[in-house]
Description:
alpha+beta
Amino acid sequence: MYSHMMVGSNDIDRSKEFYDATFGAIGGKPGIVDDKGRLIYMHNGGLFLVTKPIDGSEATPGNGMTIGIAMDTPEQADAWHAAGVAAGGKAIEDPPGVREGGAMSLYLAYLRDPDGNKLCALKRM
């Protein structure tokens, strides 16, 4: 069912710095910019895009929306989180760590990107 995720940005250069750092921390390549000015990231079969809104309005984060990014290890999630904070993101919620609930154990690390989009690194334990 899932094909891709796209978020809006008001500053594509700032977003490129942030997402190049976070995806780079988990082995991804820097984003490419297409002929429409959108950033495109491809990693582990997933497609993630960043764009200025096509309607010309300001980009705003989705209320209640979280984008989950699969991690191979808790250490990878920590590297992703640290790279994001260093590149202008904001650490949110509890510090990275294991969360228990519903017979599941998850390692989670949450950030907001420079435009306020909520991101989560997730490793199922």
